[in-house]
């Protein structure tokens, strides 16, 4: 009976987050679901705090702190006009050519997602593209879908680019530099494939002329000194993440120190910056960890462990690719945060010949799963609502169709390259 109650509340909460029947913020539905689980005795208040501290071998609080720290830096750059500056620069470089605009927005989405975080990039660039749609009077469906897909594929390259990467990396002790070296070539080659696929698919939509934008990019950034402090700190953090093992420091600790230094040195208006923060996303990430702890309290997690303990994952390329696709589909159906947390904890029980392949299959699948359905990531759900609130429509099937078209070859290319790197060169 306890399992049935938990699953019913979990599913209803999840559906409420997706469809927002009362049009309130997604995080409030998650909080209400947690209150229901407490009311029905699935867990008590003490266990709520425990689930944030520890989920089996995953430590959610480190992920939440790390993500929040990076969100401060990314939101700071957005608040200071840095992303809008880059976007206007991209439009200026395109010279009223839709195909050139696609190329520059593709590069912008890929680079910013790789260097910062995919969720932040999606929620930052989407309003700008929608604004551009109204100004230039062109159909931006292809640009919106392409930007979303690129952000969720470029993010496989860095531990810092997606909370799911951080979950896997901390569980499997994957170093920042190690991950960056292994993922650099497959990320570049995979993105090149996606570039040409999306260009062909949306060629008619991209092959247009649009009105020039009159904004002067040099006047967009509110404070040049503050913006410089933030992006320099972003690059400095990348360096310290790379040498973190030598310093014997956790990545989340380095992220917090770097973020605090950026705030102190820049003297940015902290109150205004905090108001711009994606608190809804951060709260959703936190509540998802609490919600999925119900799998432990009801005994479902132990049942999964018993079942998976007898499964052996070999080290063939076919199995590696298949496992990556399985993770992607599960993340697409049930959201990448809960799925990655559970699968990462469970995967240590797999009798795998090569744990590296398992860990990178989790990273690949958890990122690209967001391209398969709107449900695949928290940013995807909010991206869809953001588009609807601006009276712009994208059909769910179109999103999935183009997501599959780009993701399938990407996963095949990436897994082949990573397999060669790990099996033959590592």
Treating each run of at least 4 consecutive H or I residues as one helix, how many helices?
Answer: 23
Please indicate the percent range of residues in DSSP E strands (runs of 2 or more).
Answer: under 5%
What is the SS-derived class? Answer: mainly alpha
Order of helices and strands: HHHHHHHHHHHHHHHHHHHHHHH
Explained architecture:
It is globular, with a radius of gyration of 21 Å. It contains 23 helices and no strands. The chain has one domain. The protein starts with a helix and ends with a helix. 76% of the residues lie in helices and 0% in strands. With 426 residues, the chain is mostly helical. Helix 4 runs antiparallel to helix 12.
Brief descriptors of the model:
426 residues; single chain; mainly alpha; 23 helices; globular
How are the secondary structure elements laid out?
Blueprint: H1 2-19, H2 26-39, H3 45-53, H4 60-79, H5 82-94, H6 98-115, H7 118-136, H8 141-154, H9 163-172, H10 176-201, H11 203-206, H12 224-242, H13 244-247, H14 251-266, H15 270-276, H16 279-292, H17 294-297, H18 300-308, H19 317-334, H20 336-347, H21 355-368, H22 378-389, H23 396-425
Helix pairs in contact: 1-2, 2-16, 4-12, 4-14, 4-16, 5-6, 6-7, 6-8, 7-8, 7-22, 8-10, 9-20, 9-21, 10-23, 12-14, 16-20, 19-20, 19-21, 19-23, 20-21, 21-23
């Amino acid at each position: 009976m306890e399992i049935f109650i938990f699953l019913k509340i979990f599913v209803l909460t999840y559906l409420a987050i997706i469809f927002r029947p009362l049009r309130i913020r997604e995080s409030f539905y998650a909080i209400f679901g947690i209150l229901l689980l407490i009311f029905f005795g699935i867990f008590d208040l003490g266990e709520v705090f425990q689930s944030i501290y520890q989920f089996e071998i995953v430590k959610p609080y480190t992920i939440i702190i790390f993500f929040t720290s990076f969100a401060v830096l990314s939101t700071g750059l957005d608040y200071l006009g840095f992303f809008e500056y880059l976007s206007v620069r991209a439009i200026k470089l395109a010279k009223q050519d839709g195909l050139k605009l696609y190329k520059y927005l593709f590069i912008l989405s890929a680079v910013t997602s790789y260097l910062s975080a995919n969720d932040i990039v999606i929620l930052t660039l989407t309003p700008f593209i929608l604004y551009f749609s109204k100004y230039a009077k062109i159909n931006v469906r292809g640009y919106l879908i392409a930007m979303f897909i690129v952000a969720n594929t470029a993010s496989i390259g860095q531990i810092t680019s997606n909370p799911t990467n951080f979950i896997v990396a901390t569980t499997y002790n994957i170093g920042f530099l190690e991950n960056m070296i292994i993922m650099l070539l497959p990320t570049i080659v995979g993105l090149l494939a996606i570039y040409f696929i999306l260009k062909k698919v949306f060629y008619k939509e991209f092959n247009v002329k649009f009105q020039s934008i009159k904004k002067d990019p040099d006047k967009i950034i509110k404070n040049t000194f503050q913006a410089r402090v933030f992006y320099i700190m972003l690059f400095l953090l990348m360096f310290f993440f790379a040498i973190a093992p030598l310093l014997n420091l956790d990545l989340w600790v380095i992220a917090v120190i770097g973020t605090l230094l950026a705030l102190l040195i820049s003297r940015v208006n902290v109150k205004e910056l905090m108001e711009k923060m994606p608190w809804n996303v951060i709260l959703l990430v936190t509540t998802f960890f609490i919600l999925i702890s119900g799998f432990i309290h009801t005994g479902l997690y132990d049942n999964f462990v018993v079942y998976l303990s007898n499964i052996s994952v070999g080290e063939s390329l076919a199995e590696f690719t298949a496992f990556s696709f399985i993770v992607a589909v599960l993340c697409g159906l049930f959201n990448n945060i809960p799925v990655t947390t559970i699968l990462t904890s469970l995967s240590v029980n797999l009798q795998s010949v090569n744990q590296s392949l398992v860990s990178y299959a989790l990273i690949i699948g958890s990122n690209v799963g967001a391209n398969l359905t709107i449900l695949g990531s928290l940013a995807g759900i909010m991206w869809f609502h953001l588009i609807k609130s601006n009276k712009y429509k994208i059909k769910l099937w179109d999103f999935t169709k183009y997501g599959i078209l780009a993701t399938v070859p990407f996963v095949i290319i990436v897994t082949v390259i990573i397999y060669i790197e790990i099996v033959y060169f590592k």
